[in-house]
Design a protein that fits this description.
The protein is of the alpha/beta class. The protein folds into 2 domains: about 210 residues, Glycogen Phosphorylase B (Rossmann fold, 3-Layer(aba) Sandwich), CATH 3.40.50; about 160 residues, Glycogen Phosphorylase B (Rossmann fold). It has 17 helices and 12 strands. Helix 5 runs parallel beside helix 6, helix 10 crosses helix 15 and helix 13 crosses helix 16. The longest helix is centred in the first third of the chain and has 15 residues. The mean pLDDT is about 95.
C-alpha cells in the first residue's frame, strides 16, 4: 500500500505540533506501507531530522521570508500570484508543483493532505483521501481569527469530500460532529503517541530554585494571565516564598511584563528558551507542569511531562481529562483562580512520597499512548477507504 502525503504542514511550520506528529506517524508506519512526501524544499526541523525525504532542499525564499523583506498587502498578493502561476525557485512554487505532479501521476493508493488547502482536489481524480483534524479552534473562536481567515471554509469543503476523517481526540471528534455536521461513523479517533521515558539522573539541574513550569505559547485561550494571577495570590506565603514560575516560549510582550510588574511578581518569574534536551530537564525538576489552557485538540506537553517524571496540573476542560486521566490533578476557573492557587500550594508543600505517586501514575498513563499503535490504527483507516 502506497500513501502520499503533501507538503503543506512541512512548509508552513519550521517546527510545531502538526508537522511533528505527521513525522512520527510516518516514521512508525508498519512494514508493507510505503510513504511518500511530495515536497522539494523545507526548513522544518522535524522533517529534516527524520530523514524521510532524500535530497530535501533548503528554503531560500518562501511566503514568510518574502513578507518579512517586502511587507504590505500588495506585495503579498504579488508573491502569492507569482508562486501559483510561475515556475519560481521559491518553496511555495516548487512544493505546490511537486504535489500536483505526483497527484496527477497517480502512483499511490491513498492521499493524506497535511493541512486544509483544497487545491489538491483538482488533481486527485477518483483516488481516496483521508483528512486529519487536530482541533476546531478557528470555528470555536472565529472572532480572534478575522473574517478573511480561509481555513474555516477550506475545512468545511474537505470534510464533505474526504473518504475518512481522523480526529486526534474524542473532544475534537465531538466538535467536528457538532460544528461541521459530519456523521460519527466517518470519524476515527487516533490519539498521538507519547515520547519515550528516559532517565536523566546524571544531568545537573538547570534551575537551582524550586519552580513551577509553564510551557509554550500564550495566546488568549491559553489562560496565561490567570496562571499569573493564581501564582501571585499565593506567592507571598511563607511555604511558597522560594518558588519561581519558569516560562518557556516566545519572549514576554510589553503587556505581559507590565502585568507581571503590577502583580508584584517580577522577581519570581523566569523566562527561558530551552533546547529540547534542556526542556526534558526542566520537566524533570519542576514541582509541577501547569497547563491552564481553555482548549486544546490534544495537549502533547501532558505526555512530555509524564515522560520526564513531572507531576501535572490541568484545566478541567476540552481534551485534557481524556489525555491526563487519573494521572493529573485538575482545576477550574468557574469561580476565579482559587482552585489553581490551592493546587500550586499543594504541589509546593507535598512530601516526596506523594510526588513519587503522581510521577508513577504519569508513567503508567504514558504507556497508553504509543506512536506504533497510532500508526497501525491509521493504516486501518487507509485500508477502510480502498
Amino acid at each position: 500500500m502506497k500513501i502520499l502525503y503533501d507538503h503543506q504542514a512541512f512548509q508552513m511550520q519550521y517546527f510545531g505540533g502538526v508537522s511533528k506528529c505527521f513525522c512520527e506517524l510516518i516514521s512508525h508506519l508498519p512494514d508493507g506501507v510505503q510513504a511518500q512526501i511530495s515536497i522539494a524544499q523545507s526548513n522544518n526541523v522535524h522533517l529534516r531530522e527524520s530523514g524521510l525525504v532524500e535530497g530535501l532542499g533548503n528554503v531560500t525564499m518562501d511566503h514568510r521570508m518574502w513578507n518579512e523583506k517586502h511587507p504590505g498587502r500588495l506585495m503579498d498578493i504579488l508573491y502569492l500570484a507569482a508562486s501559483k502561476y510561475l515556475d519560481l525557485p521559491t518553496a511555495d512554487s516548487q512544493n505546490r508543483r511537486m504535489t500536483n505532479r505526483m497527484l496527477k501521476q497517480g502512483d499511490y493508493d491513498v492521499f493524506h493532505p497535511t493541512y486544509f488547502k483544497p487545491e489538491f482536489l483538482k488533481y486527485l481524480g477518483k483516488k481516496p483521501f483521508v483528512l486529519t483534524i487536530h482541533d476546531m479552534m478557528p470555528e470555536l473562536y472565529p472572532q480572534y481569527y478575522g473574517s478573511n481567515y480561509p481555513d474555516i471554509a477550506w475545512k468545511k469543503q474537505l470534510v464533505k469530500r474526504a473518504d475518512a476523517i481522523v480526529a486526534v481526540s474524542e473532544c475534537t471528534k465531538n466538535d467536528v460532529i457538532k460544528i461541521l455536521g459530519v456523521p460519527e461513523e466517518k470519524i476515527t479517533v487516533i490519539h498521538h503517541g507519547g515520547p519515550a521515558s528516559e532517565s536523566h539522573a546524571m544531568v545537573p539541574r538547570i534551575v537551582n530554585e524550586r519552580y513551577l513550569l509553564y510551557v509554550g505559547q500564550r495566546m488568549f485561550y491559553k489562560n496565561f494571565t490567570r496562571l499569573l494571577e493564581s501564582f501571585s495570590a499565593v506567592a507571598s506565603r511563607e511555604d511558597m516564598s522560594d518558588v519561581l514560575l519558569v516560562c518557556t516560549g516566545a519572549p514576554f510582550s510589553d503587556g505581559e511584563k507590565a502585568l507581571i510588574a503590577r502583580l508584584g511578581i517580577s522577581d519570581r518569574i523566569v523566562f527561558m528558551h530551552p533546547t529540547d534536551a534542556e526542556m526534558q530537564i526542566l520537566y524533570r525538576d519542576a514541582l509541577a507542569f501547569v497547563y491552564p489552557s481553555g482548549y486544546e485538540g490534544f495537549g502533547m506537553p501532558i505526555l512530555e511531562a509524564f515522560a520526564n517524571g513531572c507531576p501535572v496540573l490541568l484545566n478541567d476542560a476540552s481534551s485534557f481529562p481524556e489525555v491526563g486521566g487519573d494521572a493529573a490533578r485538575y482545576f477550574r476557573f468557574d469561580n476565579g483562580v482559587g482552585e489553581l492557587s490551592q493546587l500550586l500550594v499543594e504541589v509546593a508543600t507535598e512530601g516526596e512520597e506523594s510526588r513519587k505517586e503522581w510521577v508513577k501514575r504519569g508513567l503508567q498513563r504514558l504507556g497508553m499512548f504509543s506512536w506504533e499503535k497510532s500508526a497501525q490504527r491509521l493504516v486501518n483507516v487507509y485500508k477502510s477507504v480502498l
